Amino acid sequence: NPTEKLAVNGTIRAKDIKVEANPWPDYVFNDDHQLMPLDSLASFVKENKHLPNIAPAKSVEENGVALGELNRQLLQKIEEMTLYLIDQSREIKSLKNEVQALKTQQR
To answer: What's the number of domains the chain is made of?
Structure first.
């Protein structure tokens, strides 16, 4: 007795599926968007065994997953990870410059 307008008890094959999801997570790149500090993220993952704002495996196993929402959440995580990576790259570059300056001073 499904509540959805379309229920299929089997495999679906399609060339394309259009899913509408709002808001699309480009807001992650806004100056006022705060990323979770990496230490907090590491603690969350260690304690919960999944990423923040992503359903845990048990929930998906019991309830399934809305693909549009999951795609939105995954893109948000990709965009956040990109920002973390950019920050890490800048920090590494700064540390390399600092090490080089210290080596130059020692000569």
So the answer is: 1
- Comparing 83 with 17, which gets the higher pLDDT? 83
pLDDT tens column, 46-59 = 999 999 999 999 99
> Which whole-number Å values give the CA distances from 85 to 29, 70, 79, 104, in the listed order?
13, 22, 10, 28
Range of the domain at 60: 25-106
Write down the residue that tokens 């999801």 correspond to: 21
Q: What is the pTM of this model?
A: 0.83
Q: Nearest CA to 30 among 83, 91, 92? A: 83
Whole-angstrom Cα Rg for the chain: 21
User: Per the domain annotation, does 12 fall within a domain?
Assistant: no
